[in-house]
Specification:
Protein name (chains A, B): HTH-type transcriptional regulator
CATH topology of the largest domain in chain A: Rossmann fold
Structural class of chain A: alpha/beta
Domain HTH lacI-type (chains A, B): 2-56
Distance between the termini of chain A: 73 Å
Strand order of the largest sheet of chain A: 2-1-3-4-5-11
Organism (chains A, B): Rhizobium johnstonii (strain DSM 114642 / LMG 32736 / 3841)
Oligomer: homodimer
Pfam families (chains A, B): LacI, Peripla_BP_3
Shape of chain A: elongated
InterPro entries (chains A, B): HTH_LacI, LacI/GalR-like_sensor, Lambda_DNA-bd_dom_sf, Peripla_BP_I
Helix content of chain A: 40-55%
Chain lengths: 347, 347
């Protein structure tokens, strides 16, 4: 890869002239300009944009850290690619580029983040998959690196985040099922320490209590967030002595495996068991009976994350005066066939 | 974010002493070491690894360029995350990190790549989604940036690549269907200029010709590679005057939409129409009847890509003496129920 110095040496003209020719300045004669551009093309000249950036302490690059766990990989999760488009639409206005930083599954996310920051690749970070206690938040705060988190955490009382409304989804789902006559409602949660699992279960529990339904720990099924997890969840449901009449899923693709396992046992979703999925995903749209689930625009979520991040950065703050506040992102119920029956008729 | 200079100023001791304390050198007294480490923690000191790298012209970072097209996003494609783990396992041995560079859907991939190279973020690139004519390959070759492509292209006669065996899959699928008595076999191909579509159709055509079956262009269905594309493909199949008895898919998730549309019309995959999918994906594993498709280890593919890339880089070449050659990656048929019937009995 050639820089301006090599170009100048190759052409035997001054660096200043090469620079003026490359930048289209008028004080370079036609023939010289032609020679410089031809040589640049031939030698594979690449303008060095990093010099300027380093002097300014800016790379013009934002990092999005994702966990490339086995679970994510198997899930074929498009979640982050969906968010990416929205982020890029905001960053493009400021000629900022977005890189994705996939943390290997066998590496501690905190150590990984420290290394990536030490590499001085990015000006700011977006982190996701926040844990209940998440040392990355302390680290970024202390190191004064602008960041925004997709997900809450107990680790700091005050940091920029947007999170999906897990409480709202669990609450809405329980209310809906109770209105349909259900009293024995199962719920799934991740087997990890992800913060969202705690929010989801807490809200489910509170909603049950509001209706004087006793919380039964055996109805909380901790499982991997994947199709296979859904299959396993159905398996566990079917083994329960007193089988629930409804189940609420925390992850959209679980529905695929859950349906499969139920049908293998002759249990029909939407007739023998009410199912409410989580996010409306393209995959789940092809399920039969159609899945009751919640709609969210990942693009809009990406836009909001991007705006919130820039609102924390001195160079861009002025453009985003109203974007600094934390957001609990609402999801809208899309009723399907999977819970469209009255349990009274069934029992 | 604080560097070593700020630390030294804060503590009012020399940069040299701070450096020796941070690096655990023995000639620093206990108390000073303790003070330095405490201040480093408190002020969020981050070692600058970029200085050394820039002097050496090395960033120790490898870029994986992916296209974040609307299609990819809707697909929830886990393909690249799967490959990522394998790549990282190779790169970790050399303390190299992998970044994913998502090219926005509204940007020309060639221009995007040029900009990212100008940012001097990465030492080497992995590109994917190669087009028939792909200017990125010329650009990287000319700029002498080490790279490997996941996918062939007509753009250069000699560059490092690994590609899936699209010809082998199409050939195997046609032979299998003909052995089961099929003569009227449809095939899907991407609506884009992706090189793989051409390879797939050419091989299908040659296999038919081997058996004296006339190539019928109406049986080649050009469609988006997604669930929705599969739904549309089934729709078009059902409209054909003389309906085919079998269909070969070029993308695994198409099967989900295809099944749905067929079933809506009372056409049962594996009984009324033989279906052979492409890659064995977790999603497709839950289809009923089970899909005949082809197995591939994305992890192993990532390992091979990583080795091939390092084999082109002077600093690592010696470790990978046998990894320089292009590979057509084989896929292994996994027979399912979706084509398990004899068409003779049907007609």
């Amino acid at each position: 890869m050639k820089g301006i110095r090599q170009l100048a040496e190759h052409l035997n003209i001054s660096i200043g002239t090469v620079s003026r020719a490359l930048n289209g300045k008028p004080d370079v004669n036609q023939e010289t300009r032609r020679r410089v551009l031809a040589a640049a093309e031939e030698l594979g000249y690449v303008a060095n944009q990093s010099g300027r950036s380093l002097r300014q302490g800016e790379t013009k690059v934002i990092g999005l850290m994702i966990e490339s766990s086995k679970e994510t990989v198997e899930n074929a999760d498009n979640f982050f690619l969906g968010v990416t488009s929205g982020l890029q639409s905001v960053f493009a206005r400021h000629k900022l580029d977005l890189l994705m930083l996939p943390c290997p599954s066998d590496e501690d996310p905190h150590e990984y983040l420290k290394r990536m920051v030490a590499r001085r690749i990015v000006d700011a970070m977006i982190i996701s998959d926040t844990q209940r206690v998440d040392r990355r938040i302390d680290f970024l705060s202390r190191a004064k690196i602008p960041f925004v988190a997709l997900g809450r955490s107990l680790s700091a009382s005050n940091f920029p985040w947007i999170d999906l409304d897990f409480e709202g989804v669990a609450d809405h789902a329980v209310e809906r099922l109770i209105a349909l006559g259900h009293r024995r409602i199962a719920i799934t949660a991740p087997s990890s320490e992800a913060n969202l699992g705690y929010l989801f279960i807490d809200s489910y529990r509170r909603a049950l209590e509001r209706h004087d339904i006793l919380f039964d720990p055996s109805l909380v099924i901790r499982i991997r967030s994947s199709e296979q997890g859904g299959y396993q969840a159905a398996h566990e449901l079917l083994l329960l002595e007193e089988r629930p009449t409804a189940v609420i899923l925390i992850y959209e693709l679980m529905a695929i495996g859950l349906y499969r396992r139920l049908m293998e046992s002759g249990v029909m979703p939407g007739r023998d068991l009410a199912v409410i999925g989580f996010r409306d995903a393209p995959r789940a749209r092809f399920l039969q009976p159609s899945l009751s689930c919640f709609r969210i625009s990942l693009y809009d979520l990406g836009v909001a994350l991007g705006r919130m991040l820039l609102a924390t950065m001195p160079a861009y703050r002025e453009f985003y005066p109203g974007d600094g506040r934390n957001i609990i992102w609402p999801l809208e119920l899309m009723p399907g066939e999977s819970d469209a029956f009255d349990v009274g008729a069934m029992v």
